[in-house]
Write a structure and sequence with these properties.
Helix content is 30%, strand content 20%. The chain has 407 residues and is an alpha+beta fold. The strands form four sheets. A seven-stranded mixed β-sheet has the order 2-1-6-7-5-4-3. A five-stranded antiparallel β-sheet has the order 10-9-8-12-15. Strands 11-16 form a two-stranded antiparallel sheet. A hairpin with a 6-residue loop joins β9 and β10 (183-186). α7 (217-234) runs antiparallel to α13. The longest helix has 19 residues, at 384-402. The protein is globular. It starts with 14 loop residues before the first strand and ends in a 5-residue tail after the last helix.
Length: 407
């Protein structure tokens, strides 16, 4: 918890200040002591002195991530959610705790001369040399029961095509290329422009899939292990409804590079990925026909076949997803039934005597994040909005996994 006495003056708080003459921080921000901006933040507002926006921090000494609770009501709601997880002995809550970053309480800083509270959370990318991180917001519906009509309209316009088709949207990601080591970041403005095929392409990019080649089966299996365990939880729990909550999927590209070597008798088929072509001035256009010519095969790429298989909408009856166009809804129950055995690989979560999850897999992590819009379950029903969006994500990733893989 915070070490600052409530009666202390704000001037005694550690101070993040704005000074255009200073160069250490972004946009003239200066940070105290061992605090620095979180480099792998890929969603939400970053620190900006001119706009006075507050981003996420990391403490170099403890490794804790500091998430700002800048909006009073939403911030206190998320803090209350974490506090309940920390203290509750309810079996549902204790199961949920396995899928959420460990919470260490709150602290306060003076930011732009205002007292600001921060949640202290475990950094799930700790010890990753080249962390690839993607923020995937789950749910066909992202507005909560207290949303005003204006807020509902605003939310329905955000990521509309992706949410209608898949029941989730990509709000941003960063990825290190396994070929070049180059880091690329894609912010929320990029995510808002993604259509049906764009979502698939973004996942390909994030997973470091090389054109004409399948995904690394081990990487996809590790991610699916986490997702299926979370899906199993949402197929049973009736305590909560999650709106506008995300999954943070992370893996270490350095580990992927070392353990999934990119070898082939024909180096042309994998010498330049779609990701790396953006950095080469005289690259061949990345079209299915191009991949066909490069690979020397008459078949369409796995990417093209997968996009076709997921782009045909069907209807989905879902009581908790109102105001959606029926022509774009998906039958997640019909499309996404999976055998749990295919996902049970090495990234399972063991639970200690204190019910704290211990992740066996060190190079892949998946956690649920963002709990400012969590509400009690309604009428003892399942949270189908979250569950069905998660099932669609599982289905997409399973299509990558089902391809013939040489890694």
């Amino acid at each position: 918890m915070t070490t600052v006495d409530p009666d202390n003056d704000i001037e005694k708080l550690p101070h993040i200040q704005w000074n255009n003459a200073a160069t250490p921080g972004p946009s003239g921000c200066m940070f105290p002591g061992e605090l620095t901006p979180l480099e792998c933040q890929i969603a939400g507002h970053p620190f900006n002195g001119e706009k006075q926006t507050i981003g996420m921090l990391i403490c170099r000494r403890t490794g804790h991530v500091l998430k700002p609770a800048t909006k009073a009501i939403l911030g206190e709601r998320e803090i209350a959610f974490y506090e309940n997880l920390k203290n509750s002995q309810d079996p549902v809550v204790m199961e949920l705790k396995k899928f959420v970053p460990r919470y260490y309480g709150t602290t306060e800083l003076r930011v732009f001369n205002n007292r600001t509270k921060f949640l202290m959370l475990k950094n799930i990318t700790k010890n990753m040399a080249e962390p690839c991180v993607i923020d995937i917001k789950i749910g066909f519906r992202t507005w909560d029961p207290l949303a005003t009509p204006e807020k509902r309209r605003t939310e329905e316009l955000k990521y509309a095509e992706s949410k209608r088709t898949y029941g989730f949207c990509i709000t941003g990601y960063q990825v290190y290329s396994v070929l070049s080591g180059q880091l690329r970041k894609y912010d929320r403005d990029y995510g808002k422009q993604l259509g049906v095929e764009g979502v698939v392409e973004a996942l390909e990019n994030f997973l470091n899939i090389i054109p004409g080649k399948p995904a690394c089966r081990r990487l996809v299996s590790e991610i699916l292990t986490y997702l299926y365990n979370i899906e199993r939880f949402f197929s049973m729990q009736r305590k909560y409804c999650f709106y506008s909550s995300s999954l943070l999927v992370t893996y270490d590209a350095q580990h992927l590079r070392q353990h999934c070597p990119l070898k082939d008798d024909n180096p042309i088929t994998h010498s330049v990925s779609k990701f790396d072509k953006e950095m080469i001035s005289e690259s061949v256009p990345c079209t299915p026909e191009t991949y066909q010519n490069l690979s020397g095969t008459n078949e369409l790429t796995f990417s093209s076949r997968m996009k076709k298989s997921v782009s045909e909408p069907v209807s989905m009856p879902c009581e908790q997803v109102p105001d959606q166009s029926s022509s774009h809804n998906l039958n997640a129950d019909r499309l996404c039934q999976s055998d749990s055995s295919q996902f049970m690989h090495s990234c399972t979560n063991d639970v200690t005597k204190d019910d704290v999850p211990v992740d066996k897999c060190k190079w892949v992590k998946v956690k649920m994040i963002d709990f400012t819009h969590v509400f009690p379950g309604e009428n003892n029903d399942l949270d189908r909005n979250y569950r069905d969006g998660l099932r669609m994500l599982i289905r997409l990733l399973s299509l990558f996994k089902k391809s013939d893989c040489v890694h």
